[in-house]
Specification:
Protein name: Rod shape-determining protein MreD
Number of helices: 7
Distance between the termini: 24 Å
Pfam families: ECF-ribofla_trS
Keywords: Membrane, Transmembrane, Transmembrane helix
Oligomer: single chain
Organism: Selenomonas noxia F0398
Structural class: mainly alpha
Number of strands: 2
Radius of gyration: 16 Å
Length: 173
């Protein structure tokens, strides 16, 4: 059994409120700017997920990324995509954590760019594969790939531009 401090097992009130706000922020950035692409929509929620993964605690990021994104799918009429979204957003955040937040080089610019690029490529490939399975058509799924790649690029650039502005407000974890 892994031993954990009581503080590591439970959310503090402050962390709970922050997590709820960040979940709402991921939801809003995903739900509101619906930009139609084949089989779905592009949005700005991934920029929020990237920023959370670069600046906040792991469990806050995972909860906000997964729950906020899934809620956007459920309430936006994309119920079929809820499970793939849950998995894809979790892995996206994990990629950023593992590459950009290594202990030896916490948030080096090259690591951050590599993490955002790999996370975006994962997202595009995973949604394309999920679309091929859900719609039983690789051709239809491939039609969404350019939009997904553009979404990843735009969200990565937004995260890179906002990161220096937001860093002073978030302690490194």
């Amino acid at each position: 059994m892994i031993s954990q401090n009581k503080e590591e097992m439970y959310f503090t009130t402050r962390e709970l409120v922050f997590t709820a706000l960040m979940t709402a922020f991921v939801f809003t950035a995903t739900y509101l700017p619906h930009i139609p692409i084949p089989l779905g929509y592009a949005h700005l929620g991934d920029a929020v997920i990237f920023l959370l993964a670069l600046m906040t605690a792991r469990r806050v990021t995972f909860f906000a990324a997964c729950v906020g994104s899934v809620l956007a799918d459920l309430l936006g009429g994309f119920v079929l995509w809820a499970l793939p979204t849950l998995i894809i957003k979790f892995v996206m955040a994990e990629i950023v954590f593992r590459i950009a937040r290594r202990r030896d080089s916490l948030a080096g610019r090259r690591n951050i760019i590599a993490a955002l690029v790999l996370s975006s490529l994962w997202m595009a490939a995973a949604y394309t594969l999920a679309g091929a399975v859900l719609y039983d058509s690789l051709t239809a799924a491939l039609a969404s790939s350019p939009g997904l790649l553009m979404e990843g690029l735009v969200n990565g650039v937004i995260a890179l531009l906002l990161l220096p502005l937001l860093r002073e407000h978030f302690p490194r974890r």
